[in-house]
C-alpha cells in the first residue's frame, strides 16, 4: 500500500503549532516531566467528548519543525470514554539530558493543550522526586508524520505494515515497514505521461488557508482590593490567545494610568474606583474590570484630658484624745481624710482646672496649722482652704492645741532643705508649726518664721520598707541660725554641724526624730 503526502501538509503542521495556548477545559492530560531513553513514551489524554482526530505533536530540543503521531484508543491504559493514548518514537542516546517538546490536539475541534518539555533521562530514577515519568509502551507508533525525526528511532515494526512518511524523494518516496528478515522493496517510479503537443507550465498547489488567530482571553488581579487611605494596590494582567503579543492599558479610576503588565498604584483619596484593563493583540481587544474601595483611616481615640493629683496629709499632736477624731473634708468628692499620728495621706486625682476645697472638722476645739498648697489659710474654726488643680499639689493640716503661726507674723527669714533617703519612705516634718511631707529621693523645703526663743522641729516616718537610710535637715542660709544653738532632742545622729543635722533611720514606720535651734538676732 502506497501513501502520498501533499507538499503543503508539513508546512501547515508547523504553522499550526506556532503559538502556545492555555490548555482548554475539555482536554484532561497529566503532563510528564521525564522520558526514558530508548523507550516508547506513551501520552494519555481524555477529551471530554467525541473527537475527530486526536494527535500528539513533538520535536526534540533545538528543532523548530513539528512531527506527529495519531492517538489511538487503548483499552488497558485509557479505557475511559473519549480517552486516547499517543505513542512517540524512541528518543536516542544523543538526546539524553535534552528536552522533548510536545502538545496534544483535537485537529477537528481545534482544541489543544499547552506545550510541555519533559527531560530525556537514562533511567526513571534520574527524574526529580515525585516528578511524573512517561509510561512505556511495548510497541512503537503505527506511523510518524511527516517522517521519523532525527534523534528518534522506531526499532522493529509491528507485524502489520505501518506507513511512515519520509522525505527521501520529494513528495513520492514512501518507506514501507517490513517484517523481520524481509528486504525493503524499492518502489518503481511511475512512467511519465506522453508529451503534449504544447507543454503546459506546472500548476503549484494552492497555499493552505491561514490559521485564524486564537481567541483572546484576558483576566486581571488586584491585591488588596480594599483598605484604608492611603492604599497601594498591585495589579497583574493575564493574557492568552490572540497573536501571542499583547499591549496593556490600565485605567485606575482616579485619573491614573499605566502601560505595564504588572503595575503598582497608590490611591490618595477616599471612595470606590472602577479599574479597567484593556489588552490588545493584533486586531482583537478585550477588557477586564476590578473594583477598588478606599476607606478613611480610623478615627484616633480622643486624647484623655490631663489630670493633676492632690495629696492631703492630716496630722494631730500625740497628746490629742478626741472623740470623734479630727478629719479634713476634701470636696470633690466629699471624702474625709482622718488625722492620725504620725499622719494620714489621702490622694485624689482631678482634671486640670478643678477647684478643690479642704474643710477642717470642729471637734475638740483644736486649731489647724495649714501648710503646702494651703499655707496662709486661717487656723480658726470655719476656715476653708481652696486649691485650684493646675498641677500636682500637696497640702498639710496639723491639728494642735495652742496657736499657729499665721501669715500676720513677721516675714520668713530661714528655710530648711529636707532630704529623706530610705527605700520607699514617706515622712512628715513639722517646722515651726508648719507641716511638710517628704518623700524618698525628692527634696522638700519648708520655711521657718522669725521668732524669739527655741524653735523645735519634729519629723516622723509615715511609711517605710524596713530598709535603713538617712534623713537630712540643712538650714538655708546657715548664717540665720545662732551659733551653737542647734541641738538634737531625739534620734540616732549620723552628722551634726552648726547648720545641719543628719539622722540614721532603721526604715520603720513611726520612727521619730527632733531637734531645736534659735535664730540669730
Explain what the structure shows.
This protein is mainly β. Helices cover 2% and strands 44% of the residues. The chain contains one helix and 39 strands. The longest helix is centred in the N-terminal third of the chain and has 8 residues. The termini are far apart. The N terminus is likely disordered.
The assigned structural class equals: mainly beta
Helix content: under 10%
What's the total helix number?
1
Cα distance spanning the termini? 147 Å
**Which regions contain 5 or more consecutive residues with pLDDT less than 50?**
1-25, 157-190, 406-412
Q: Choose one word for the global shape.
A: rod-shaped
Number of E strands: 39
From the alpha-carbon coordinates, what is the Rg to the nearest angstrom? 53 Å
User: Biggest sheet: strands side by side, in what order?
Assistant: 15-21-20-17-18
Biggest beta sheet summary: 5 strands, mixed
Strand content: 35-45%
Mean pLDDT: 81
Secondary structure topology:
Layout: H1 9-16, E1 34-36, E2 40-46, E3 54-60, E4 67-70, E5 83-87, E6 90-91, E7 100-106, E8 111-112, E9 119-121, E10 136-137, E11 152-153, E12 164-165, E13 174-175, E14 214-223, E15 226-228, E16 231-242, E17 247-251, E18 257-258, E19 264-267, E20 271-281, E21 284-295, E22 307-316, E23 327-331, E24 335-338, E25 344-351, E26 354-360, E27 367-372, E28 384-389, E29 393-400, E30 412-421, E31 426-431, E32 434-439, E33 443-449, E34 455-463, E35 469-476, E36 487-490, E37 492-496, E38 500-505, E39 512-517
Parallel strand pairs: 1-9, 15-21, 22-29
Antiparallel strand pairs: 2-5, 2-10, 3-4, 3-7, 6-11, 7-8, 12-13, 14-16, 16-19, 17-18, 17-20, 20-21, 22-25, 23-24, 23-26, 26-28, 27-29, 30-33, 30-35, 31-32, 31-34, 34-39, 35-38, 36-39, 37-38
